[in-house]
Design brief:
The chain has twelve helices and twelve strands. With about 375 residues, it is of the alpha/beta class. The chain folds into two domains: about 250 residues, 3-Layer(aba) Sandwich (Aspartate Aminotransferase, domain 2); about 130 residues, Alpha-Beta Complex (Aspartate Aminotransferase, domain 1), CATH 3.90.1150.
Length: about 375
């Protein structure tokens, strides 16, 4: 069955029944007999989706867990109240005091902050490695336990050779975990490329409507058992209303990402013609350093692009002049966004660019591309 068809039918019960699984709110699940209570407690150890206690999810969350596991190609998926919660809980599941991990140097800033401010005081250390590395022998220590990757990279979209890197990691006995928020299980499937765990901030494209906070982690093999146990022990869960909203958003995931990708490429091509612009970063561009890898392993593009303006360009005044682009964090909703950014200048995508060149990350929403370009053009005109 095609993935587009699956999106429309995730979680549907036997007919006649509702098109979307209803919101089921519950903490306590009642039984008529002690035998029934004991049987369910025993069964839930091998059945992730049995209704046993609200902390382990109701039928609403179970439907979403099954959908994300299928999207990512995992043996199971677990839900969290935010993307950062999914990241932090996954790291804690696999690391213990004294361990060492490797982070790709283009990692999401909040991930690195968690390592600095939470893991480091626990005696867990890390080192950075470049996004184009596939052999990490130079960075490994006897205490290294896992490799954390993110592809495309946060803000500048470096694409990693995950099949080669994960093959090396398996040979070294290391777990590989991917932040897959950019692709959200649709454009890119890290588990199929050799990763053990794929983490997604469902706040972005899975929900798709800028009104849900949630995270998810899908896993396979031994990593699935480790993650399952950690989630149950720490009480990680997602409220049923957020699970319902995310599952409803998933129905249109393929269509939305197709439009986001088309719009982002249209904006990329337009920005490249502007005299105020030095470079546009987008993995769909042929001159992007990771374009060939993305064409090989990915399937389409999302709405993100980063514009590097010439030194001295007033990005604050420019962004303030825009009407259709809201200024705000996050991305992945239906709306277009813009935000000034300052990524590390050591990144491969930024080689040769002046350090004083200002950068803006744009998210192309679902508006008509002509209207977005007209808004961006009017912003330039207002400065002149």
């Amino acid at each position: 069955m095609h993935r587009d068809t699956k999106l429309c039918h995730y979680g549907q019960a036997q007919r006649p029944g509702p098109a979307n699984p209803p919101v089921v709110r519950a903490s306590t699940i009642l039984h008529d007999t002690v035998e029934s209570y004991k049987a369910v407690k025993a069964a839930r150890e091998s059945d992730e989706y049995i209704l046993s206690y609200g902390r382990r999810g109701t039928t609403t969350a179970h439907a979403l867990m099954q959908a994300i596991a299928d999207l990512e190609g995992g043996e199971g998926a677990w839900l969290f109240p935010s993307g950062v919660a999914a990241i932090s809980a996954t790291l804690m599941a696999f690391l213990r005091p004294g361990d060492h991990l490797l982070l790709v140097d283009t990692v999401f800033g909040a991930t690195r902050t968690f390592c600095d401010e939470v893991l480091a005081p626990l005696g867990i250390t890390y080192d950075l490695f470049p996004s184009d590395a596939v052999d990490l022998s130079a960075y490994v220590t006897p205490k290294t336990k896992l490799v954390w990757v993110e592809s495309p990279g946060s803000q500048t979209y470096e694409v990693m050779d995950l099949p080669a890197l994960t093959q090396w990691a398996r040979g070294a006995g290391l777990v590989t975990i991917a932040d897959n928020t950019y692709a959200s299980g649709w454009l890119y499937r890290p588990l199929e490329l050799g990763c053990d765990v794929s983490v997604v901030a469902g706040t972005k494209y899975l929900g798709g409507h800028a009104d849900v906070m949630m995270g998810a982690a899908a896993a396979k093999g031994e990593a699935a058992a480790v993650l399952r146990r950690a989630v149950h022990l720490t009480g990680q869960t997602l409220a049923p209303d957020e699970a319902y909203a995310t599952l409803r958003g998933i129905r249109t995931l393929g269509l939305r990402l197709e439009r986001h990708g088309q719009n982002s490429l249209a904006l990329t091509e337009w920005f490249a013609t502007r005299p105020e612009v030095l470079r546009v970063l987008h993995p769909g561009l042929q001159d992007h350093p990771g374009h060939a890898l993305w064409q090989r392993d990915g399937q389409g593009d999302n709405g993100l692009l980063t514009v590097v303006f010439k030194p001295g360009f007033d990005t604050t005044a420019y962004l303030n002049a825009l009407q259709l682009f809201g200024i705000g964090s996050s991305w992945g909703g239906f709306e277009s966004l813009a935000m000034p950014i300052e990524p590390e200048r050591t990144r491969a995508s930024l080689q040769g660019l002046p350090e004083e060149a200002p950068m803006v990350r744009f998210h192309a929403g679902l508006e008509h591309a002509d209207d977005l370009i007209a808004d961006l053009s009017a912003g330039f005109e207002s400065l002149s």
